[in-house]
């Protein structure tokens, strides 16, 4: 039974890994976007974390995760004489890499971390049934990598503590995990700080082990600093790297230590992680854990292990900082679920299945689900519209994105010969509707020329209804600009467009859910 259930959940994980939902801009702009322009010469726009004078993101953990598979794809297509691979193939290949990392490393680590053979299979199945495993862990997040590094850091700590004759290979692997974790995200030490205290008695008895661990750590840190400095200063010499290195974790700490910097990303109450974020990630499992706390003075069973210590202590430490997002706690999900023992309850199973099914489709299919398909189809949309308007040349096109997440530029792929001009992407984010129209009005040329200006926006935006093309262009109420829909994608929900204050609860849901979708419009003037 456990095996069949696990195989079914594995197929579900594959389905969500190949579903183009878009959970957060960081999953593209802090990973594939960085290397898409360098390896394939795709259009790319590096985020500010990589362009500031003191860069705060390291490429050391990104190199094996994204650059190596993308470079292999480029090499393969070059060998067969096809130039660069299509961006959609690269996109789904990276999703496949994240799926394999989750399937192999996460499940294996959880299997090792649960000491009881009786609970191991049930625990692996429970973790595999979480929507966080289906969605976040199969997306190209630094938080997803952090989850794997935290889990295997705990595995290595346990192996070293329980094995009195650990090899130097174990120290080397734990050092690499520690360095890669810190350079990946500065929140990583919060998860291993207290569990790592178990190593102190061991290192006290075996000082050579401590020296080996620190020696390997120094080696991997030097390599990481060298890679980062070479990336940000390609022409620098080896001596310059030694004299003036770029230490991205240090820059990250200095940046996040300034509350004014955090305010630009949004400030949250210190209890946000415990009150809202963990519940959003764990649902009924979190409620069951909270209810077990009322058994004091008896310590709940789920709190009596290193996994719970890692998750709870990290949540406490991360709650000190006022900027708190649910994805920061993704490493806690498999750790806490591995502590749950009430999953045989029918009520728990029913609520657990419903919760993860709803959240899985919401976050794994519909959440900003049209952004990636629209960007992948943009060149063909522009080419088809140019031909339909009878324009023989292929002018450059400007595409305005409104009320969506920032579109990944690298998904446009290479310009295909003379079939299309270049595509300029303009991100208007959540600009008010009238200001958005003013932006369009300032760039759409006068009649009778039809300019290749496009607008990508959610179909739930009722503000656009006034401007959508109708058959009565001679009406005195016809606006100056007209929108002609060229393409649409139904599986798209814009949760940032919820406006319960102005529209009311029912009207807002009818609009956002009932009119769900993402559209691409050609913007033209209402010429007579």
What is the compact description of this entry?
The chain is of the alpha/beta class. 55% of the residues lie in helices and 7% in strands.
Key words describing this protein structure:
endoplasmic reticulum, 5 strands, signal, 25 helices, about 525 residues, five-stranded mixed β-sheet, GPI_mannosylTrfase, 2 domains, Mannosyltransferase, alpha/beta, EC 2.4.1.-
Strands in their spatial order, largest beta sheet: 2-1-3-5-4
What is the share of helical residues? 55-70%
Q: How many helical stretches?
A: 25
Spell the H/E element sequence: HHHHHHHHHHHHHHHHHHHHHHEEHEEHHE
Q: Whole-number radius of gyration?
A: 26 Å
Q: Structural class of the secondary structure composition?
A: alpha/beta
Rounded mean pLDDT is 88
- Overall structural domain count: 2
Q: What portion of the residues fall into strands of 2 or more residues?
A: 5-15%
Describe this structure in words.
Belongs to the glycosyltransferase 22 family. PIGZ subfamily. Residues 1-17 form the signal peptide. With 528 residues, the protein is an alpha/beta fold. The protein has two domains: 2-267, no CATH class; 371-525, no CATH class. It contains 25 helices and five strands. The protein has helices at 2-17, 26-29, 32-39, 48-51, 62-79, 87-113, 117-128, 131-134, 142-162, 168-184, 188-192, 199-205, 207-232, 238-243, 248-256, 259-263, 272-282, 284-292, 306-318, 332-337, 346-366, 371-388, 433-443, 500-503, 505-514, and strands at residues 397-402, 423-429, 453-458, 481-489, 518-525. A five-stranded mixed β-sheet has the order 2-1-3-5-4. Helix 1 runs parallel beside helix 7. The chain is globular. The model is unreliable at 471-476 (pLDDT under 50).
